[in-house]
Amino acid sequence: MLVVSDASNLKDKWVVKELEERTGVKVDLEFYSTATYAEKLKVIMASGNLPDIIHGPSLAEINELGGKGAFAPINDYLDQLPNFKAMYVDNQENNWVMKSYSDDSGNIYTWPIYGLNREVNHGFLYRKDIFDKHNIPLWTNTEEFYQALKKLKELYPDSIPYASKTQAWIFRDWGYGWNIAGYPHNFNEDTKNWELAFTKPEYKEMLDFMKKLRQEGLLDPEFVTDTSANWTAKMTTDQSFVTFDWIGRLDMFYNQAKETNPEYDLRYGNPIGPVFKIRSLPMISTYGHAIAKNENTEVSMKLMDYLTSPSGAELMTVGQQGENYELDAEGKVVYPELKDLDLIEIKVLEDKYGMWVQGFYTRTDRRSVYYNYTEKEQEAQDMMKDMKLPLDPVLKFTDEETSTIADLAATLQKAGEEFSAKYVLTDSYGQAEWDAWLQQAKQLGEDDFVGAYNAAQARFDAE
After folding, report:
1. What's the pTM value of the predicted model, to 2 decimals?
2. pLDDT digit string (tens) for 105-136?
3. Rg (CA), the chain
4. How far apart are CA 425 and CA 218, in angstroms?
């Protein structure tokens, strides 16, 4: 089994031995570090000498190689896979997997991962201590967001209230509030058609708002080039007060700033934009798991099915009660052997027990420490539980559509991001430049790009 791990002596970890004890299957882990895995995977795939269970290739790559006989169709083994069948065939909410992940012949080679994503993992973050100090309320719409930034600029003239380190991804992150849930391809829930995000009228409205902020000194003009280190310095001092990032920063930045500023309090903020929504994260995702077609196929299938069971999820992401974890008075998982650590996160569990090894699990247990939120992170979950955009359909493409998308996606995204940055940063850019961009997008293949998605959507709807 091919996995990703930076741990030492991975093959000797408790999880590996316990998995063999439970299943009778001896798993020989072939593992590479996070830094080298992608390159190693390319070499392994090119060699044709595949491990029994692999992870990492894209859905399109797996389906192509599966059609050539390299991988085994999961659907041929359904009568031996009770957990897969219950999760992805019989479950009416999840059985889209069978048509969206399968190839043109109806064979499915990709084994999904269930339950990995947290409900809320990113969003706008703001310095609550500064807002409270100056009686600035948390914004509840875009105009209030703008007025809050203006007030901060008045109070701290040398500051730039909004800082960003995500570079061109800022256009994706802000786009959710303008009803742009996909990037660069967006599914319009009203028309049920796919569009290019960069040419939607709502996208221009967002760029106009960003330009206004930049012109008034409220948005950092370095937003497309700033480094993580510079951004961190701004957000942990009084240079900037609002940003967009991962919820782990809420406590991380406090720990960095508390010695010089014990009042520092970074909190999760509301979204902005006319629809006032954030992105949803899927319950089902793929890390590109596939099973080689060889003498071990049946055993590999059954092993993956066990990993997809509640018992397998507990083993791989929590452990075994009485063996390495207990439940405290509140019913939370605690690890007696790790009681001296200030923070137990998934890398600690990987190093100690072999849990949470990327590629080694196919389902997660929500009792895991990964879902133990701090007070600030829990606040984010509670705030946004009813404010998420619907997920886009997951489509199945023909070879021709896949080729079209592959040929055009990167070009359109690069051009769209470059235009967006120029539009926001250049005072003279306005309607004329927007109209010229619409024509350029057409010339770069916008119609063919969204046409491939809409053709696949028509088949999806028909099925």
Report:
1. 0.85
2. 899 999 999 999 988 999 999 999 999 999 99
3. 24
4. 13
